[in-house]
Amino acid sequence: MTATALKLSNHNDTWQPLCTRADLVAFSGVAAWLSTPEGPAQVALFYLPGHAQELYALDHFDPFSKAYVIARGIVGDIKGSPAVASPIYKQHFRLEDGQCLEDDSQQLRVWRVGFKGDEVWIEG
Amino acid sequence: MVNHTMSTPTTSSNTQKLIIVGNGMVGHHFAEQLVESGALAEFEVTMFGEERHRAYDRVHLSEYFSGRDAESLALCDADYYHTHGIQLRSGEAVTAIDREQQLVVTEQGHYAYDQLVLATGSFPFVPPIPGNDSEGCLVYRTLDDLDAIQAAAKNATNGVVVGGGLLGLEAANALRGLNLDTAVVEFAPRLMPMQVDSEGGELLKEKIEALGVQVLTERATQRIEPGDNSRLRMVFQDDKVLETDLIVFSAGIRPQDTLARECGLSIGERGGVVIDDQCRTSDPNILAIGEVALWNQSIFGLVAPGYQMAKTAVATLTGGDICFSGADMSTKLKLLGVDVGSIGDAHGNQNPGARMFRYLDPLTQVYRKLVVTSDGKKLLGAMLVGDNSVYDTLLQYYANGIELPKEPASLILPQQSGAAPALGPDALPETAMICSCHNVTKGSICSAIDAGAADLGSVKGATKASTGCGGCAALLKSVVDHELEARGVEVDKSICEHFAHTRQGLYDIVRVEGIKTFSELMQKHGNQETHRLGCDICKPAVASILASCFNEPITDAAHVPLQDTNDTFMANMQKNGTYSVVPRIAGGEITPDKLVVLGQVAQKYQLYTKITGGQRIDLFGARLEDLPAIWGELIEAGFETGHAYGKSLRTVKSCVGSTWCRYGVQDSVGMAIQLENRYKGLRAPHKIKFGVSGCTRECAEAQSKDIGIIATENGWNLYVCGNGGMRPRHAELFATDLDDEQLYRTIDRFLMFYVRTADRLQRTSVWRENLEGGLDYLKEVILEDSLGINDELERQMQHVVDSYQCEWANAISDPEKLKRFRNFVNDARPDPSIIMTSERGQLRPA
Question: Could you tell me which residue ranges the Rieske-like [2Fe-2S] domain spans (chain A) (predicted)?
Answer without folding.
Answer: 14-123
